[in-house]
Amino acid sequence: MPMVTVSISPLQAADIRAAVDNGTYASSSEVVREALRMWDAARKLGGDRDEILNPDCTPGGGKCVAEMFADHEAEHRRTA
Known about the structure:
The chain is an all-alpha fold.
């Protein structure tokens, strides 16, 4: 698998580490791959970048990436 180096904030790094430490994910790479899959799915739904990544979520009842990720995390915890 190709290696890519990215820069993230200390808070993002701590959140990734916490997801691994609490057993939600097996590795940091798994967290990032899941986030990228969700970003790709949201992007394919349409809308511009500001709508997709808006922390207040999109108007008209659509879900933003943060909301989708929270839903996924909750489902993952229920089935784990």
